[in-house]
């Protein structure tokens, strides 16, 4: 059954941090791969990271664009419950610090779904190559807090997140009045690119300094 198997801590200790970040890996991946591909490439200091590990390397079995079945809803609920607990636990170690929720691919989708529940709300979301889980006609949570800073990215021909699903998610975020920035990268492989890492760096730096999330990193 999908869900959170463990949490891998990285960066500084929460008691010494200025900002918190939970980064959620994609399907078939691991916290160690996200550490190498993303965390080690960030410049922002004074960050306490928590990287959840999925049972069997997957947060749910279906593709994000598949209709929501009872089985998918059950798996998604288990993973969302584990993610919410990870946020609550990390915040308990550093009360009052801002928290960025970020993820890649299936991890980005899970992060977006968490944000739309309206529970344990982060101060910002960075969804690298992500979309909502399930098609627009399915019954899905729609409780995204107004004004939440959200960064959403995609490749123009990504094998897992079609550009149509990305665009539908951008529309849903806009209708929910998110503070939204979107980037589409033509021909980009299914990976986190340098501009996306720079964007996460800017989010972390702004929140660590007590500034609003400007999301002004260059494309």
Question: Which key phrases capture this entry?
Answer:
alpha/beta; seven-stranded mixed beta sheet; 219 residues
Describe this structure in words.
Helix content is 32%, strand content 21%. With 219 residues, it is α/β, with parallel strands linked by helices. It has a single domain, classed as Alpha/Beta hydrolase fold, catalytic domain (Rossmann fold). Helix 2 packs across helix 3. The longest helix has 24 residues. 44% of the residues are buried. The model has no long low-confidence stretch (mean pLDDT 97).
Name the CATH class.
Answer: Alpha Beta
What portion of residues is helical? 25-40%
Tell me which CATH architecture applies here.
3-Layer(aba) Sandwich
Mean pLDDT: 97
Question: What is CATH's topology name?
Answer: Rossmann fold
Helices and strands, in N-to-C order? EEHEHEHEEHEH
**Number of continuous helical runs:** 5
Q: Tell me the fraction of residues in β-strands, as a range.
A: 15-25%
Low-confidence parts: none
Major β-sheet annotation: 7 strands, mixed
